[in-house]
Every structure is written in C-alpha cells, then in structure tokens.
Amino acid sequence: MNNFKINNKFQSIKDLLLDNIIHFNSSGKFFIEGQRNAIKLFDIDGFVVNVKSFKKPNLINKIAYRYFRKSKASRSFEYASKLMEFQIGTPQPVAFFESFDLIGLNESYYVCEHLENVFEFRAIVQNEDFKNREEIIREFTRFSFQMHQKGVEFLDHSPGNTLIKDNKDGSYSFFLVDLNRMKFHSTIDFQTRMKNLSKITHKKDMIEVMSNEYAKLSRENETLVFETMWKQTADFQFRFHRKKRIKKKLKFWKK
Predict the structure, then answer these.
(1) Where are the domains of the chain?
(2) How far apart are CA 255 and CA 253, in angstroms?
C-alpha cells in the first residue's frame, strides 16, 4: 500500500513526480549520499525538486510509523506547510510518499523545492572572516526571534539546518531544512528560547552578538540573555562531547 500526498500547487507534475519517486534508486542526481538518508535532485519540466529518501526503519519503527506516529516524511511535509503559513522561510513543500508492507512502513520520501545559490549557517561559524558576518548573525537572530514569537520550536535548530541566501541588496533570507522534529506552542518561555539557540554555535563572540540582538528584540536584560544563552550552549556542548566519548568507547569494545 502506498500513501502519496502532493501540494495542490503542483498537481500538474503529479504523475512525473510520482514516477521519479518510484524509480528513485535508478534515476535522478545525487545531492547528498549519506549513511542514513539520501537526497537526489530531479528536474521536472524545468522545476528542480529535492527528494529526500529516509533510511528504512527498524522493525519497531516500521510498526510505530504505521500505527502510532507519523513518519519523518509526513511530518516534514506537514511542518513545512505550517512554516509557510507562518511566513517562516523553508524550501516550498511539494509532496511526500510512503510505502507500506504487511508489517508497517517500508520506504518514505519528502519532496521540496531545491534552492540554488544558498549556503549553510555553518559557514558563518567556521569562517570568522566571512563577508558581513556580524550582520548575518544579527539577521539570523531576528529570524529566530520571529520564529519563537510565532510559537515555533525547531528542535534541530543547528548550523547545518539553516540555509542562507544573499539577496544582493544588503539583506539575507533564511530557510529551515531537516524539519521532522518540531513543536508548536501558543507561547514559548524564555528558558526554552535560549535552549533552542544552544546548538547554533560554541563561539563566545557569536553568542555575544546574538544575545545583544535578542535582548533588543525581546526587551530582556542583555546580561541575563547572554549568561543564559552561554550556559545553555555550554550544557549542550558538554552533553554532545560526552555522547561522542561514549560512542567512541562502545566502538572500541565492539572491535
């Protein structure tokens, strides 16, 4: 059994898109070939789409994604659609596809518009000499603040999951990707907001700029914003590196 849902705006390419998804393994051009997920690009009548193939779930998740919770592909489409309604940047959602066997979910795909001429926020973190670096950090902070104001908590708010487009007029546009983990609230409290920014960067100079801008927007005390954001970042870094050490030890003992 298959489940295919497409954005009404793209009904005209429905058949071609479905054919490309079904023949994902033998067609398209690899954009990312990861160990867990793969992304391919397909040109459909001059419109380039980005098709993400999620890793086949294990037995427990096969059943869970069939009966108890929505698949990553389904959630990505749903959350992207909500972001569009909230006027929060994300590549335009096109469709999602799920195939099921007798046990549960077998394969799943999320399709969105492919963005050209963009770069990851990660580039800002890694390159301290990046052109207009401070202004981009401040614009990104404003983008994040507006997202929080609208009740959106992006659980994977990390430097690789925000794409940036230089508008060539001194401004920048921001687009969230990898959307399958999100929460939507009526309001978001201060601690949750600061925690939501804890994965963005470990660099103190960036935290100083972000906290300065966030304090101006939220009218919170700047010292409080900086100290809270810095503590949340330090806590995340501790957990992240502890997890890496544990994984490294487990791999050693498996050898």
Answers:
(1) 2-113, 119-243
(2) 5
